[in-house]
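Write out this protein's structure.
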Amino acid sequence: MYTFKNEELEKIIECPVCKNKENHNILHENVEDLAFKCINGTWNIYKCCECESLYLNPRPLSEKVYNAYSQYFTHKVEKNSIRKLENEIIYHWLSIEIGERINSKYSYFFKKIRPFLLYRYPLEKLLELPKGKILDIGCGDARLLEILNKLGWETYGIEIDDKSASIAREKGINVKTGTFELINTYDQKFDYIMASHVIEHIYDIDKFIFTLINNTNKNGTIFISYPNPNSLMHKLFGKYWWGIDAPRHVALPSIDSLEKIIRQSNSTSRTSKSPILTFWGSYMNKFNRYGFVGVIFGKTLQILTTYNLIPKKYTDQIQLEIVKK
C-alpha cells in the first residue's frame, strides 16, 4: 500500500467547483480507501455551503495522484463469466454479432431482463440519435466504442491507462493514451463526446467542461455521468458510500454548480433519470463482508428506480447532457 508524503499533498483554500473561499465544512472525516485498499491513511471530505459540491481536502498533487490507481479497475482488464454474460445481454439487445456468444436460444430472455440487470449510459441515449463522430474520454478498453463501431459510428477514444488503451487499439479502435487535454490534438470536432465517471477525477472542472464544449460541433451533445452527491445511498451510508472513493474522487460537483458553468459556455443542459444505485458497493465498504440480503435489497432498489419510483434527484448517478448552441 502506498502512503502519500506531506510534500505530495496540497491543501486547497477554495471550492474547486464554484471558487468559494469562505463557507465550507467538513462533511466526512477519516475516510479510508475502502474500494481498492491500495492507499494508507485517511482523508477529509468537505462540503461547499455555497454550491453544495463535495471535495477532497487536502488532496494528492495532480502529478502524484497516479499512485492511488495501482489497483484501479482500468488496470485489471480480464475476461470472465460475468463480463461474458454482460456482453451477451448487450449483443442480443442490439441484435448484433460481436464477440463470443453463449447460446442464441436465450435471446428473448436476455432482452427482457436487460433493463433490470444491465444499464449502459449513454448507449441508451445514443441509440435514439443519428450516427456521427463520437469521442469517449476515459474509454477504458473501449467496450462501448466497440459496440458503436459495429453499429456504424465513427469512433475515437482517450484513455489515461496505457494497458487499457492498448487493448482498445487491438480491437481496431482509434484510441490515444493520455488525459482529456489530448482532445485538442485532433484536427476535427465531434458530434458527440462521452465522459462517463471522469469529472470526479478532474482537478480543473471549468477547464474540463470548456474544453469538451469547444471541441463539439454545433448542436452536438456531450454526455457526462458521475456520482450524485445528493443521492439516497450517500445519505444512507455516509462516508462509506461508494461514490466517495477517496483519494481518487477529488470533487463531486452539485448539478446546479455544473449547470452554471455550462451556461457560461453558451450551451444548454438537461438531466435524465438513472436507475443506478450503489447499495451493494457501499454495503461492502461499510461491513466488509458479503450478504445475500444486501444483494437482494440493492437489486430491488435498482428495479424501483427503473420504474421511476425513486425521485431522480436521489438516484446515485447524475446523467447530464450538454447541447452546444
